[in-house]
Each structure stands twice: as structure tokens, then as C-alpha cells.
Amino acid sequence: LPMAFRDVNARRHIGLQQLSSLALAGRTLLGPMKSYKFVVDESTNQSTLICSAVRLIESLDLTSAAGQLLNETIQAQNKEFKTGMSTLLFLVGAWSNAVLECLQQNVPVSAIVSVMSEGLNSCCERVQCLQVSIHDVNKELCSSSVRPNTFKSKACQIGCDSLLNSQTFPYFQKDISVPEEVIPINSCSRQEDDGNVNKCLVSPLGCFGSTASLVKPPGDKSTSVISGSGVSASSPNTQKLTHSRYFSTLGKSYFSSQRGNFQGNLSGQSTDPCECYGLGHLAMTLSHGNQTSMKLLQSVVAYQQERAECSGSSQFSVAEIVTCCLLGLPESYSCVSPGFVTLISPEQATVIKYFEDKPLRILLMDGDLTEQYRHLGFNRPCNVRTVSEHPGLQEGRAGDLWLSSVLDILKSFEINLVLVKGNVCENLMERCIANSILVIGSVTRDVLCAFGEVTSTQPVTYLTQLNVSCVGSGARVELWKACDGRAMDLGELLPVKIKVPGIPLLTAVLTTTVASKIQLIEDQFWTLVYRLHHALNDEKVFLGGGAVELLCLSHIQMLAEEPVQPATKNTMREFHNPWLAASATEYKSVVLQALASGWKQYLSVVMCNAGKASSQLEACTSVNHHLKKAADCGSPSAYILQEFRKGDLLRGGSGPFADHGVGLKVYDNVTAKTEAWRRALDLVLLVLQTDAEIITGPKRIQLLNSHVSSEFMFL
Q1: Domain span(s) for CATH 3.50.7.10 in the chain
Q2: Source organism's superkingdom (predicted)?
Q3: Which string of DSSP letters, residue by residue, matches 602-628?
Q4: Looking at residue 603, what is its pLDDT?
Q5: HSE value, Cβ hemisphere, 13 Å, CA-based, for 136
Q6: C-beta separation of 190 from 478 below 8 A
Q7: How far apart are the first and last CA of the chain?
Q8: Which of 494, 546, 617, 642 is deepest in the core (most CB within 10 A)?
């Protein structure tokens, strides 16, 4: 952290300079081609691998007030949206520099605050013309000239029940590995427990050169068709179109040769193109270049949509998705597994052999399973004091009594499996293992609710509340198996799979051999999940690829070039002071140009990070070229929309991808993006208006007599 402030001098507005220095550290985190960073602790020489603004700020020792405010702002954005933090961090730095430049030109603080706020509000209104409804996005994607192709695999003719066969299932998974094709639904065992999902598992890759894997019932000789698409699987050669968050490119052939046993060609078109792949292709346009997470999410979406058609439930539910990170397996083993996959100790795993092929009685606990746990709001009796000559001995006896009573209760109800929301007493865990009772702690509320709904049970806070209606049945537990059907022995922790017939839970099993990438991979997956979630909530998306930021830049520059008008009565009424109103009008052009500089830096840095420009100068030249063409067009929004549809928006001329073909369309979240803008500017203006230091005591006299006294205002 001290290095982050190496450029901070002793002038006023230290807070803005600190914000700028902190944001500079996250410059390479912007755009689709993010650079990994190692954050090193100089005191312990330990390091952390990060690739997001959230993890960067969390890893820094923020001791300054401005740093704390920045951390709170980014955490608030992350808590609400799970996306947009890198944009927020960059704009905080860019606009902090812009405000400092305004101050150097003696622009009053009141004018900076009012004009920048007004300018951002105007931008948010202006870019509404670049919003597209979800229905229109699906319709355009499916009816475009780049249509999805569907492949038919020999493995796809294997029935769902046949997946239980240890000889056929590895073959099925082998052809569908993560980095190259489609993420499978992991169904190595107990496929019959999947309830109504037993009919057909679909794992589409969206709408652009993607693969759909269908599992047909045995004996079904009909053509493999995705519901509602009219797409049958019969063609051998297609192209895989890879694309990034901002700058799309045409990738290499999806299969450079006939890989494995995938065969087929395209036949027919969808009668209703906007419904042909559901949410799969929408997830692709929001993936921002993260292929692995995109394919995992598409498998989740396919599973949930198949279930929704049968049960009438929501087509996409974040509450039904959990993650389990496994260290020691290649990333190609990542998959989506129905049920709840979690990690347990080897000692707990010894209990599972007693549960094989047996339905278990399950108990859900909404709290800690410890002797001292009390629910939130519990009031201990007042004026009660316990006196004992041997407190240690008494405490031990009381603990033994509690452990014995808990075991007696569990045995009396014949409970085999206990899921606990909070912590579990270690001594109790050991006794439960000895009595063949599996207890799993730190289970999320969503998981408890899912098990509760499917087993018609309610979680209890204390075991003394337990009765027959609080105990569920039908749960099955087994060691989780990888794509090749082998159970995993990862050393300290073992993955276990818990299922109940009809449970809607899906676990995204994220695997890697690099310990420092575990958190990173999980963050990337959840970011994409919430992008899709917010897009469905907003029911609309922004045009991506820098379209929105380019329109903001064009709009602000047009406002800045407008001739200066005398202060109106409305302006005076707003500021309650003729001088303030006049200053806001006088400095409007300067402040708006400073605001626009933030957008220009944003676009140029994204182009450089994505390899679309070899230097900042080349990127700025490309942006200026588009601005000129947009102005000459007469309607910047029409020009940007036209370039977006052609896929030529902000394409550099000398980047490594410059000679690629027509790009694919990408989209952004509406609310998350605009909130990131507002939070960034609000933070900068807050620090600007509160960036003063109150000095009392003897140090005041020293400063008053020093050569830097002119830089302080003494009250």
C-alpha cells in the first residue's frame, strides 16, 4: 500500500490523489483481457493471486479515510450486483484526476459538483436509446445470419439410465470436456433420483456455433431436436465463434477435425426463433469472454429450463445454484452436478460406506450445533450467578451430559444425516462419526430451504424442538465421482454428493490444480450467474462492446461545445446564489470536458488491454475517429447502433485480432452499469467536498510558521 501512494504529494486534496493512486493499481483489470496480479505481503512474503477489483481492494491494507470509502463503495456494488466493480474502480481514478485538473484551473468546488452530477444524469438519460429488451435480443440472435448448429453424438443416444454404466459414462464425459466443448451435467450415479429431469438432459452452448448434447431414452429412434428450435442434429462441420466482452472475434473451427464421435448437420429453422435456446445464448452474450463459466452456466440454465417445463417453476433461480471448489483436479473436470456437493473430512467419509444404497433420515438445523449456541435475540436471565468449587470439572461433566443427550435424541429419531447452518461442536462430530451419523456444518440457508421443501421438513434451532414432523427421509449420500467415474481422494477433504428425489439444487463443481486460482474461478462463475440474473430482472440489456461509453463521450462533448448561456432563473433558484449560478455556467465547458476525459480513458484502456491498440495514443486516435464519424452522421446513437450491428465498433487497426472476421454481439447489464457510474462519481465528489484536515494542538503552530502554511486554510 505505501507504494500505491508514492505519487501523492503534500498539496491539498490528498484524498483525491489517494483514490487516483489506488485505482491505478486496478487499471489492467478492466475489459475482457484481464491481467492476473499478485498482491504480496511484505511482512510475511505471502502472496495472493487476484483478477478482480474486489479482491484487489480486499488484499490492500487501507488505512486512509479515502481508501476505506473506496472499499465500502466497491463492497456495496459487489454485494448488490456482483459485477461492475472494475468499471467503478477505474472511473473513480479517472474522475479523481479530472477533478484535480479542474481545481488546478481554479474551478469552484460547487461548480464541479453541480456540473458533473448534471452531466452524468444527462448521460444516463441519453443512453436509454441503447437499451434492448431481452425478448428482442433473443429474437435477433436466433434470426441473425450466424445461426447455431447442433451436433449429434453417439453418446447422446445413450439413455439417461445408461449413464449409470461405468463403461459408457466416462466415454460420454470424455467427449464433452470443459475447455473445448460443452459442460456436462454430472450424473455419474443415481440418475433415477433426478425425478422429472430423467427425461432428457440438454446442455446447449447458446446460439453461436454452439453444441447441444441430448440424452435420449433407449430405443428412441427419432431425430434429435431441441424443443422449440426445429434444429436436428445431423451435420459434421461447424465453426466455433469465440467472443470477448468488448471486442468480438471469429474463432477457429469448433472442431478442427471430426473429434471423437460428434456428427451431424443443420436442418430446419425455428418457428419461433426467440425461444429456440431459451437463456443459453443470452448467457453467452453476457459472458464477456469467460468460456468455462459460460458453459457451466448454460448447463445450469438447460437443467433448470427442462425442470421448469415440467413443474412450472422459474426458468432461472440463483437460489438453486451452489458451488463446490475442488483443488487437485484439472479444470477440464469442472461440471454441473444435480444435488448438493460439498467437502467433508476423511473421518466423515468413513461413515458413508454404511449409507450406500440406503435412504437416510435427515435433520436440518438453522443455527450452530454447540452447547453454548443461543438464537439471535435470546436474553439471558439477569442477576443469576453460578458458584462452584471445581468449575473445570463441573464444566466437563456438563459438556459430557450435553453430548450424551444430543446423541440420545439423534438415535431416538434414527437420524443418519444432519445439515447444520452454522458451526458444529468437534467433540459431537467425533461421537456422531463413531455412531455412523454424518453431520455437515456451514450449509447455506438456500441449501437448507431446498432440502426442507423437497422433504417437507422445517429446520429447527435446538434439538429439544425436534419431533417426528421435523425429520425428513429419502436422502442419499455418496462420494462424488469425476467425469471418468472415479471417486476423488483429494487428501485433506473429500467431495460428497447428497441428493433427494426431486430436489432442484445444482452444484457447479469447479476444479483446478492451482490453489491460488480457486477463489478466482468461483468469483468468475458467480459474476456470470448474476449478470444473467440481473438481465432477467431488468428485462433489458445495454449494447456492449463500448457502445454505451462511446455515446456518453459523444453526448458530453456535444454539451461541452454548446455556447455558454447566461445564468437562468432556474439555475439561480437551484443554487440560491447568483454568484454560484454564474460560476456553474461559466465553468460548465471545462467541467464537462473533464468528465468526458474519464469516458475516453475508459475506452482507450479497454482497447489496449484487449489488444485492439498497441498504445494509448493509437486507442485515443481510434476513439476520436469514431467520435468524428458519429458527429458527421448527425445522430451519434444511430451511428453507434449501425457500427454495433456490423461488429466494427472500436476495432483497432493493428491489434493481434485486427484481421479477424465479423464479430459477435455482446451486451451489458443496465442497472449494474449505471449504478457503477453513479457510485464512482458520488465517491469522488464526496471526497472532494470533505477533503479537509482539522489540525489542533501544538502542530497547528508549527504548520503556521512553516513554509507550507499557504497550502492550509486555518479557521
Answers
A1: 340-374+399-504
A2: Eukaryota
A3: HHHHHHHHTTS-SSHHHHHHHHHHHHH
A4: 95
A5: 10
A6: yes
A7: 32
A8: 546
Residues 153 and 434: their CA atoms lie apart, in Å, by: 47
**Considering only the top CATH level, what class is 3-130+542-714?**
mainly alpha
Is residue 588 within 8 Å of 105, Cβ to Cβ?
no
Q: Scan for cell 453417439, then name that residue.
A: 154
pLDDT number for residue 484: 76
At 643, which helix (H) or strand (E)?
A: helix 636-646
User: Read out DSSP for 404-456?
Assistant: HHHHHHHHHTT--EEEESS-B-HHHHHHHHHTT-EEE----HHHHHHHHHHHT
The residues pairing with 132 across neighbouring beta strands, listed in sequence order, are 541
Vertex 11, ends 560 and 6: CA angle to 5°?
A: 100
pLDDT of residue 289: 80
Q: At what angle do helices 85-104 and 588-609 cross, to 10 degrees?
A: 140
What is the pLDDT, as a whole number, of residue 272? 42
Q: Let me know: does 476 contact 360? Beta carbons within 8 Å.
A: yes
Q: What are the backbone dihedrals phi and psi of residue 390, each rounded to the nearest 5 degrees, phi first?
A: -125, 75
Give kind and range of the element (H or E) at residue 20.
helix 14-24
Rounded to two decimals, the pTM is 0.77
Nearby residues of 489 by Cβ (< 8 Å), 6 or more positions away: none
Per-residue model confidence (pLDDT) at position 584? 66
Point out which residues pair with 248 in neighbouring strands: 243
Residues 258, 260, 266, 269, Cα dihedral to 10°? -150
State the pLDDT at residue 685. 95
* Closest to 686 (Cα-Cα) out of 34, 52, 95, 75: 95
Of residues 302, 299, 351, 237, the one with CA closest to residue 483: 299
Task: Tell which CATH architecture fits domain 340-374+399-504.
Answer: 3-Layer(bba) Sandwich (3.50)
Which residues make Cβ contacts (< 8 Å) with residue 475, sequence separation at least 6? Answer: 359, 360, 361, 362, 416, 417, 451, 455, 498, 499, 500
Q: Determine the Cα–Cα distance for residues 547 and 551; give it in Å rounded to an integer.
A: 6
Query: Which residue pairs, CB below 8 angstroms and at least 24 apart, start in 467-473?
Result: 468/413, 470/363, 470/364, 471/361, 471/362, 471/363, 471/413, 471/415, 472/361, 472/362, 472/363, 472/364, 472/500, 473/359, 473/360, 473/361, 473/362
CA–CA gap between residue 86 and residue 179 (Å, rounded): 25
Helix (H) or strand (E) holding 512: strand 506-512
Of 471, 438, 444, 271, which is closest to residue 363 (Cα–Cα)?
A: 471
| pLDDT at position 510 | 96
What is the predicted pLDDT for the residue at 398?
53
Cα separation, 169 vs 157, whole angstroms: 12
List every span in the chain annotated with CATH 1.10.560.10: 3-130+542-714
Strands 335-338 and 506-512, bridge-based pairing: antiparallel
Backbone phi, then psi, for 140, in 5-degree steps? -70, -40
Residue keyed to cell 435420449: 216
Give CA–CA dist 193/501, Å, rounded.
5
The alpha helices in 52-157, defined as continuous H runs, are 53-59, 65-81, 85-104, 109-126, 134-143
**Residue 664: per-residue pLDDT:** 62
Secondary structure element (H or E) that encloses residue 343, with its range: strand 340-344
Question: 699, 690 in Cβ contact below 8 A?
Answer: no
